[in-house]
Amino acid sequence: MASTNDLKNGLVLNLEGQLWQVQEFQHVKPGKGPAFVRTTLKQIPSGKIVDKTFNAGTKVETAQVDRRTMQYLYKEGEDFVFMDMETYDQFPLGPGLVGDAAEWMLENSETTVAMHEGRALYVELPAAVELVITYTEPGLQGDRSSGGTKPATVETGANVNVPLFIDNGEKIKVDTRDGKYLSRA
């Protein structure tokens, strides 16, 4: 059990027998009346997002989540196969559990897989990954970093908008949370 004052992003709650991950939270202390906590929760594994308000200091049940470092090995049909780095056990995870992370995962890259009671809940990637541009239109003389952007395809097959001066074969950093170009690597 934890208090609503202990909430933080990424914490997994067990509400009415279902698992919910805290996406955002905000402590609100109005001028009149008691304080409360406004949260945005994501249901695991369905991905449904709801807003829920708790009175400040209310006890909520937290779920015991074990975050394990795993290596993404390969894709087999629709499933993604991961290997636990400690036990070397392999786990096939469906596309629903992997979600948007599939766009940014390279084979043999390390990820974090959240487990609850021996069952995988979701896949977490680092905040940024380095990927090689496989195709983009050639840049023109005079293209500058403050100019516009152009679409580029990276080695995982995902599309990223990059500055005009980026060429094929260059390695770039991409933010895995929103898919935006960060810098050259």
Describe what is shown at a glance.
This protein is an all-beta fold and 185 residues long. It contains one helix and 16 strands. The chain is flat, with a radius of gyration of 20 Å.
What is the count of distinct domains? Answer: 3
Share of residues in strands: over 45%
Shape: flat
* Rg, Cα atoms, Å: 20 Å
Major beta sheet, strand line-up: 9-8-7-10-11
In CATH, the topology of the largest domain is named SH3 type barrels
Q: Could you characterize the architecture of this molecule?
A:
It is found in: Cytoplasm. This protein is mostly beta strands and 185 residues long. It contains 1 helix and 16 strands. The protein has one helix at 95-98, and strands at residues 2-3, 12-15, 18-28, 36-44, 49-55, 59-60, 66-76, 79-84, 90-93, 110-116, 119-124, 128-136, 149-154, 159-163, 171-175, 181-184. A 5-stranded antiparallel sheet has the order 9-8-7-10-11. Strands 14-13-12-15-16 form a 5-stranded antiparallel sheet, with no helix packed on it. Strands 2-3-4-5 form a 4-stranded antiparallel sheet, with no helix packed on it.
Offer a few descriptive terms.
OB fold (Dihydrolipoamide Acetyltransferase, E2P), mainly beta, about 180 residues, 5-stranded antiparallel beta sheet, SH3 type barrels
